[in-house]
Design goal:
Largest sheet: 8 strands, mixed
Distance between the termini: 30 Å
Strand content: 15-25%
Number of helices: 17
Number of strands: 13
Order of helices and strands: HEHEHHEHEHEHHHHHHHEEHHHEEEHEEE
């Protein structure tokens, strides 16, 4: 099965406009599909291609970089010979896969781009951590794009459905409901997506066999890989990274989802855990969401970076992470989620997947929290704040039936109407507009 990924079009756009003057850097979590996408792009769009995987590179290849890069004619001759691939001027692509594992190659790209013979793509994760940029000059010629797990539309493509999403987009733009029959059908697909997630290997397994347990086995392998990466690459703070990672499901299952370090260690202080949070963020394993204390002056400008929520970058991985010890042989747990009969806080899954879709749409994640310990009725909690046409749009996520939206009302009363855009409630029902609030079915979050 061949996956269609939207990032492929970004690669085509880069090839068309770059004309060998920039190198494309694709950052993303491990197993998100970077290498596969680049390899397919190289095979389809170039006369020849060399992929150098620095996670599994023989010493002979590294020797070519370290000893022969001063003479580029010899450098390319040796690379061509080692990989048994002929290189053609202006018609070949060289891919530096997992380039963070060999920073010297990343620095060398400045000179390779200036040489102008071939096109270059880098892939990697943890690209900004100190140990991965130490003693190198990062080339200004890098043009970066981020690659996220497969979104809902890509998931539907994998299942052979390329007709549903255009209809959903049309309904979103016209603010019209789908109707109950079609909405139920799409929600069924979306719950499958929420459970399987967007990691390509898991989606491939599910698309072929329609078996949640088989997809879950793949996701456990990916989570194990992440744990091994933490142990191998997180340096002196691996225990802190592991503690944060292990505590994620428990943090998200609480009504108050702000990350509380005291649940890990009652003496923990943010300053000593900053690098650990950064590791998970830079590896694109988790999506941080920060408290914007005064949205009037801008979300980032008023952010309290000591108060954050932390979501899993892929909701399918969150499901597997949460229920790691359960036996999936009869899929009872998955049926419970699909049929909306799960006896846990399903809100964590809905909020996590909303965060995932907003993040993949290019939004940095912010929320608004104004507690009032003296009178809880005055407290305001808004799950997400996004900007649209320079206006602030509050977004609340509801996993089921709800009676009120008092926080949204108080937020809209507190801030000037000239600063505010549309207000949204993300929930599992069909689209409607009520009380001047746009109620969006959760699968339409991807259009925000």
């Amino acid at each position: 099965m061949i996956f269609h990924r939207k990032t492929y079009q970004k690669l085509l756009n880069w090839k068309k406009k770059s004309k060998r003057k920039t190198v494309l850097l694709i950052s993303g979590a491990r197993r998100v599909g970077k290498s596969f996408l680049c390899e397919q792009f190289g095979k389809n769009e170039y006369k020849s291609m060399i992929l150098i995987d620095f996670g599994n590179t023989p010493k002979e290849v590294k020797d070519i970089f370290e000893n022969d890069s001063a003479d580029l004619d010899m450098f390319f001759t040796k690379l061509s010979a080692f990989f048994n691939t002929r290189l053609y001027k202006r018609e070949s692509l060289i891919i530096f896969d997992e380039v963070q594992l060999f920073p010297y190659a990343r620095q060398l790209l400045k000179y390779l781009v200036a040489d102008g013979r071939y096109d270059y793509i880098e892939t990697g994760s943890l690209l900004s951590l100190k140990q991965n940029v130490k003693d190198i000059l990062i080339p200004s010629e890098e043009e970066e794009i981020q690659m996220f797990p497969m979104d809902f539309e890509e998931f539907l493509w994998a299942l052979g459905d390329d007709t549903t999403m255009p209809l959903l987009k049309s309904c979103f733009e016209q603010k019209k409901p789908l109707g109950q029959a079609l909405h139920r059908k799409v929600m069924n697909y979306f719950r499958q997506y929420m459970l399987v997630g967007g990691m390509p290997q898991a989606v491939l397994e599910y698309a072929e066999y329609k078996d949640f347990a088989m997809a879950d086995t793949i996701k456990k392998q990916i989570l194990t890989l992440y744990r091994n990466d933490i142990a191998k690459y997180s340096g002196g703070y691996k225990n802190k990274v592991t503690a944060i990672f292990d505590a994620l499901p428990g943090q998200l299952s609480k009504k108050e989802k702000k990350y509380k370090l005291a649940s890990i260690d009652k003496n923990a202080r943010l300053r000593s855990y900053e690098d650990a949070f950064m590791w998970l963020t830079d590896g694109m394993i988790a999506n941080p969401c920060f408290n914007s204390t005064d949205p009037n002056v801008g979300l980032a400008l008023s952010s309290d970076y000591s108060t954050q929520k932390l979501y899993m970058a892929d909701t399918g991985l969150l499901v597997t992470h949460t229920f790691w010890d359960n036996d999936y042989s009869d899929n009872e747990l998955y049926r419970a989620i699909l049929l909306d009969k799960l006896n846990i806080n399903e809100g964590m899954l809905f909020e996590n997947i909303a965060a995932q879709m907003l993040r993949s749409n290019g939004h940095r994640l912010f929320f608004y929290s104004r507690p009032d310990n003296n009178n809880r009725k005055n407290s305001i909690e808004i799950d997400f704040l996004i900007t649209k046409e320079k206006k602030i749009c509050p977004v609340e996520v509801k996993s089921g039936s709800y009676q009120s939206h008092s926080s949204l009302d108080k937020f809209r009363n507190k801030f000037s109407s000239s600063k505010l855009g549309d207000a949204y409630i993300i929930y599992p029902k069909d689209l409607m507009i009520k009380d001047d609030i746009i109620h969006l079915p959760v699968y339409m979050t991807m259009f925000l």
